[in-house]
From TrEMBL, chain A:
InterPro entries attached to this UniProt entry: WD40/YVTN_repeat-like_dom_sf (IPR015943), WD40_repeat_dom_sf (IPR036322), WD40_rpt (IPR001680)
Domain of life: Eukaryota
Keywords for the protein's UniProt record, in alphabetical order: Cell cycle, Cell division, Centromere, Chromosome, Chromosome partition, Kinetochore, Meiosis, Mitosis, Nucleus, Repeat, WD repeat
Claim: Cell cycle is one of the keywords in the record: yes
Cellular component terms (Gene Ontology): kinetochore; nucleus; phragmoplast
Family stated for the protein in its record: Belongs to the WD repeat BUB3 family.
Segments annotated as WD repeats: 95-127, 245-279
Coiled-coil regions listed in the entry: none
Protein name (record): Mitotic checkpoint protein BUB3.1
Presence of the UniProt keyword Iron-sulfur in the record: no
From TrEMBL, chain B:
Coiled-coil features, chain-numbered ranges: 49-76, 155-182
Bias (Low complexity): 517-531, 634-648
Keywords: Coiled coil, Cytoplasm, Microtubule, Nucleus, Phosphoprotein
Organism in which the protein naturally occurs: Nelumbo nucifera (Sacred lotus)
Protein name stated in the entry: 65-kDa microtubule-associated protein 3-like
Length: 341, 736
């Protein structure tokens, strides 16, 4: 009877990838879940039914994936290639290539473009509607100060986090140069960047158990709101262990967010009230990726070793889909110390 | 040929004639007698005849044999034909003369052979069919007499019989397939049952018949097997129904318990698959493992857990009700039943001897009864209160009257004067009050037939005692007055003698000793006024009502213990001593938990030096935040003590990494009930100034450390993918 663990951790999907999970995302239209993995596959699950719907085999490890619509998606591969995947036919075509492994891929509904970031220190935009062939699909190449580590989109804003703690904020309508060039307010390497659903800023996590909450508004008042907080740490016998924060996922309805770290914990935070709302029970290994479903009722958790301590034996990679209770993600109203008489 | 024969005959005739002639010559020569000659000739002729007869006989026999052979053949042919159910092919022609016997035989033999061949074929067919029949019969388990040997009834090999046998075979085959289907059906049912019950299907069918487990081989389909299968199904179904009923019982209990305890939905959802089956009938439960032993045990565990929970909640409820009862009793100055009763009740609940529900009911009843009684006592109690306050005033007045400096014009003297004036008025009313009370109480007692008890003491006796005391006092007073008068005379005499007047005070102070004290030293019941307010219950001594005057001292004791409370004291000091007791009370339960880094005398102001010390203490605020939960946060913002001023805070959070906005209070108020934890936005040891006391370890630190040495940082993914920046690129980075 294995019903005991999954109930607390969520339902474990059958047929998980056989190697590290690099990312997972829920569709914007259904409860389909797209998962990329180091085992060179991109898998499409129907999370609510726990069914593996399709599988794409690539030449190298897949570092990221995203949906186009419910019938197709994109993948970023270590073999420098950006691919378009058609789920209904199971076919894939090559959108184009970078000069180095492609780290992340995003699809912008606002611009109708695919944006990829690579370790070749560039950002490329692609038009997936163009006929196959790089010269037709490539919209532009934009050099970055360093290798791109994480991308996030909200509306027309694109936030690019690179090695060397650079953060560039672009406006998709004018990609010629960054709208803002920033340095990460965290002292360590950036792991993940995600925009607030309301479009006012972004959260950025580092390898040193910390998350910074930043705002796009450059005015003094706007910047006064930003702050950072510590998380995913463990204090034991006088030793504080600090874990990398691998994943951030915002709740689409409440704007609260979940973080996942190499400590195997998933925490839910209320950024406005600066409170932790919930901590889920510990997962077997590092949290590699997180995604809320479109209505925020489901949370997909990739419990998968992220290679933080090199090649070593580790727990099997698994995807848990848990149903999210409102209490866990709904911001708690502020309580004033002394209610006015 | 015939020529040759006739020649031979002719030759023979000639030789016979020549031989006869030769004989006649011999006879003539010999001179044989005619008689002898005749005799010899007769002999000769007889011998010839003999030879002829023999030959004819032989031929005759041969003809008979031929005829026999033909007849035999024909007979066999006929038998075969009849056996094969065919019309005989050969019908003997009547005109025998036409064909010779030999020809006839020659004609009949191939027919016979043909028929024999056909018969053999037919027999083989029969054998084949019969073998099939036998085989199937064996499989079905219908044992024939000699199962090993197939016997064909040679007399009836007709097509009809064959057809019949074929039909039989078909019937058997059909039966076999039916049975097979039945077996498969049974197996399917069994499989689904096993799935639901969480049993090993293979083992189950192996027990029924080992051949059933074999997926390729033929399955045993005998009656016995089917019966055993059916009985296995029956058995499993019975088990299933039993388990289902058990599960449904459990589910019902569970639902009841959920309902009773308002179990949160998420907890309920885990057992959705149990409760959804609550009204399902046997065939509706098909989900795998729903009725397995493990699952039922699992559900059972949950139910027992819920029951335990319920029991503990019940216990809590009983305790609550009990304390409610006590509270009511206390309020109405009734004496609740022996305190031991509660412990007894709880013990009983724990041991399971008594149903908590019944105890609850009893307590409820008790509460109702007490409430009713309280209602009837209300009027009298109000009067008692009034009387007691009057008594208090009386005792105060007495005390006051004893104070010889009472008319000294000090601060607030006019107030005391006023109070005394009022008290006197009240004291004057006291006897009437007591009388009214006595009559009321007696009426009440008469009406109910029970004593009116006040904190366990009969009120009437209290009143009586009071009256006695009062009379005593009256007498005392009278005596005093007399004495005073006497004294006055004495003084007057002395004055007359010595010309001076001793102070009356000295004499009075000497008298103070034997005077009755109003404190708690004497018997409670005998004491007057305020002392009477003390209730017999020891636990009440902590309540604010019991010892109002002690409060400030007590509080200061408490305060001196820890830093935490000193915050409250600070606020208390501002608000005035009288109110201070309450917040302190609230905090004091934390006192033992907190080890404050430093101690401070109570009521001493928080100096700025002190504050800086506070700030220097590592993670002091964090610790407080962790340890206190909500208490500190409650007091701090509302009192606006120096600690929360933003400027001071900035010294705490001056770590540039966090950039906490100035003016943001770190400790936001929170209700104690919420589980939400504040984000740790406060300082952490920066890597450059890592403190020696607590080591901070970055997870995967080794690799990150290496990274620093390498100068080029790599992410986990880059390291895993073995991605290395080209040399030129590194150079440009270094240059940049």
């Amino acid at each position: 009877m294995t019903a005991v663990l999954p109930t607390s951790a969520g339902r474990e999907l059958s047929n998980p990838p056989s190697d590290g999970i690099s990312n997972l995302r829920f569709s914007n239209h259904s409860d389909n879940l797209l998962v990329s993995s180091w085992d060179r596959t991109v898998r499409l699950y129907e999370a609510s039914a726990n069914v593996l719907r399709g599988e794409f085999m690539h030449a190298g490890a897949v570092l990221d994936c995203c949906f186009h619509d419910d019938s197709s998606g994109f993948s970023a591969c270590v073999d420098n290639t950006v691919r378009r995947l058609v789920f209904s036919t199971g076919k894939e075509d090559i959108l184009g290539r970078h000069d180095a492994p492609v780290r992340c891929v995003e699809y912008s509904y606002a611009a109708g473009q695919v944006i990829t970031g690579s370790w070749d220190k560039t950002l490329k935009c692609w038009d997936p509607r163009g006929a196959s062939g790089q010269e037709r699909t490539l919209v532009g190449t934009y050099p970055q100060p360093e290798r791109v580590y994480s991308l996030s989109l909200v509306g027309n804003r694109l936030v690019v986090a690179t090695a060397g703690r650079h953060v560039n904020v672009y406006d998709l309508r004018n990609m010629s140069q960054p709208e803002q060039k920033r340095e990460s307010s965290l002292k360590y390497q950036t792991r993940c960047v995600r925009c607030y659903p309301n479009g006012t800023g972004f959260a950025l996590s580092s390898v040193e158990g910390r998350v910074a909450m930043e705002f796009f508004d450059l005015s003094e008042a706007g910047q006064a709101k930003k702050y950072a907080f510590k998380c995913h740490r463990k204090s034991e016998a006088g030793r504080d262990t600090v874990y990398p924060v691998n994943a951030i996922a915002f709740h689409p309805v409440y704007g609260t967010f979940a973080t996942g770290g190499c400590d195997g914990y998933v925490n839910v935070w209320d950024g406005n009230n600066k409170k932790r709302l919930y901590q889920y029970t510990k997962y077997p290994t590092s949290i590699a990726a997180l995604s809320f479903s479109r209505d925020g009722r489901l949370l997909a958790v990739a419990s998968s070793y992220t290679f933080e301590e090199g090649d070593k034996p580790h727990e099997p990679d698994a995807i848990y889909v848990r149903s999210v209770n409102e209490v866990e993600v709904k911001p708690k109203p502020k309580v004033y110390p002394a209610p006015p008489p | 040929m015939s020529n040759l024969q006739t020649d031979q005959l002719l030759q023979m005739e000639t030789t016979c004639g020549s031989l006869l002639y030769e004989l006649q010559i011999i006879w003539n020569e010999v001179g044989e007698s005619d008689a002898e000659r005749d005799k010899m000739l007769l002999e000769l002729e007889q011998e010839c005849l003999e030879v002829y007869r023999r030959k004819v006989d032989q031929a005759n026999r041969c003809r008979a044999q031929l005829r026999q052979a033909i007849a035999d053949s024909e007979a066999e042919l006929a038998t075969i034909c009849s056996a094969m159910g065919e019309r005989p092919v050969h019908i003997r022609q009547c005109d025998q003369s036409a064909v010779s016997l030999k020809e006839e035989l020659k004609a009949i033999i191939p027919q016979l052979e043909e028929m024999q061949k056909r018969k053999c074929d037919r027999k083989n067919q029969f054998l084949e069919v019969l073998e099939h029949i036998q085989k199937i019969s064996n499989e079905i388990g219908r044992s024939t007499d000699n199962p090993s040997k197939v016997v064909v009834d040679e007399t009836d090999l007709s097509l009809r019989k064959l057809e019949e046998l074929h039909q039989q075979l078909h019937a058997l085959q059909k039966e076999k397939s039916d049975r097979l289907k039945q077996v498969l059906d049974h197996l399917n049912t069994l499989n689904s049952l096993c799935l639901v019950l969480g049993m090993d299907f293979k083992q189950t069918i192996n027990e029924v018949h080992p051949s059933l487990d074999d997926s390729e081989g033929t399955k045993n389909i005998s009656n016995d097997t089917i019966e055993r299968l059916a009985s296995a199904i029956q058995r499993l179904r019975k088990v299933k129904i039993e388990r289902m009923q058990k599960l449904q019982d459990l589910a019902t209990t569970m639902l009841e318990l959920w309902n009773l305890m308002d179990t949160p939905i998420e907890e309920q959802q885990i057992f959705q698959n149990v409760t959804c089956n609550i009204a399902a009938s046997e065939h509706e439960i098909t989900e795998q493992n729903t009725l397995s032993v493990e699952f039922i045990n699992y559900v059972e565990e949950e139910v027992s857990r819920l029951e335990d929970l319920k029991a503990s909640k019940m216990k809590e409820l009983v305790l609550k009700k009990r304390s409610e009862l006590e509270e009511i009793c206390r309020r109405t100055h009734l004496v609740a039943e022996a305190d031991g009763a509660m412990e007894y009740a709880i013990e009983a609940i724990e041991s399971g001897a008594v149903d908590p529900a019944s105890i609850l009911e009893q307590i409820e009843l008790q509460i109702a009864r007490v409430k009713e009684e309280a209602f009837s006592r209300k009027e009298i109690l109000e009067k008692v209160e009034k009387w007691l306050t009057a008594c208090e005033e009386e005792s105060w007045l007495e005390e006051y009257n004893r104070d010889d400096n009472r008319y000294n014009a000090g601060r607030g003297a006019h107030l005391t004067l006023k109070r005394a004036e009022k008290a006197r008025a009240i004291v004057n009313k006291l006897p009437a009050m007591v009388d009214a009370l006595v009559s009321k109480v007696t009426a009440w007692e008469r009406e109910r037939g029970i004593e009116f008890a006040y904190d366990g003491v009969r009120l009437l006796s209290m009143l009586e005692e009071y009256n006695i005391l009062r009379q005593e006092k009256e007498q005392e007073r009278k005596r005093q007055r007399d004495q005073k008068k006497l004294q006055g005379q004495l003084i007057a005499e002395q004055e007359a003698l010595f010309g001076s007047k001793p102070s009356p005070m000295k004499l009075q102070s000497g008298k103070k000793g034997p005077r009755m004290s109003t404190g708690g030293a004497s018997s409670r019941r005998l004491s007057l006024g305020g002392a009477m307010l003390q209730t017999p219950k020891p636990d009440l001594s902590h309540s604010t009502k019991a010892t109002p005057r002690l409060r400030p001292n007590k509080k200061s004791d408490l305060l001196s213990h820890n830093q935490d409370d000193s915050f409250a004291a600070l606020s208390a000091g501002r608000r005035g001593l009288d109110v201070a007791g309450l917040p302190v009370k609230k905090h004091s339960f934390n006192a033992s938990e907190i080890e404050s880094p430093m101690k401070r005398k109570p009521f001493s102001p928080v100096s700025s030096a002190m504050l800086s010390k506070v700030n220097n203490t590592t993670n002091f605020l964090e610790d407080l935040n962790k340890v206190h939960g909500g208490t500190l946060q409650k007091t701090l913002p509302s009192n606006n003590t120096p600690l929360t001023t933003p400027s001071k805070l900035s010294t705490v959070t001056d770590d540039d990494e966090n950039r906490t906005p100035k003016g943001m209070p770190i400790h936001m108020p929170s209700t104690p009930s919420t589980i939400s934890v504040h984000m740790q936005t406060a300082t952490t040891p920066a890597p450059a100034t890592r403190p020696t006391t607590t080591a901070t370890v970055l997870f995967g630190a080794k690799t990150i450390e290496e990274e620093y040495e390498e100068e080029v940082e790599y992410s986990f993914e880059e390291r895993r993918a073995g991605f290395v920046l080209p040399k030129t690129l590194i150079k440009t980075i270094v240059q940049a």
